[in-house]
Write a structure and sequence with these properties.
This protein has 185 residues and is an all-alpha fold. The chain has helices at residues 3-12, 18-38, 49-61, 71-94, 117-134, 136-147, 152-159, 163-184. Residues 105-113 have low confidence and may be disordered.
Length: 185
Amino acid sequence: MSELTQILHVVERGDENPSERLLPLVYDELRRLAAAKMCRETENQTLQPTALVHEAWLRLTTGAEARWQNRGHFFGAASEAMRRILIERARRKTRLKHGGGQVRLDIHESELADTTPDEKVLLINEALERLQAEDPEKARVVVMKFFAGLTNREVAESLNVTERTVERHWAYAKAWLFDAIRREF
């Protein structure tokens, strides 16, 4: 059993505060995952990877009892927390109260995009929720790969499946989501 898994079990029993020993072991990995996700965001994104990691950490360790079976389970929960943070942020930015979809344009731009990046994230999330209802395992693969930037190997460890299964689920889910989003337009 890895050192991380041992610490997760100690934390689960309530013997220790998660921040003391767990955070130093997972912080760099969480930061890498957040940075990978944030590099795919637009230039006008104000959320920094560090802030995303810190908010995800707070969600993981406060409120409900933290129960992680192993490293993969922990990082799966972290990817879901990051996804929820990004979705909530996109929803908040598209509300009328906050400018509701108005996009700041450069006078030199000749082409206008049909949707803003936040609207795209929301479209993906809506389609992902429909996929979750149809096939939860494939939806979990999307969350872990798209929102947290996990590799196929990391997703496979988290879900206790083979890398080939992750590849098949990812290919299916991408096609399914593309078709679902295309039908929206």
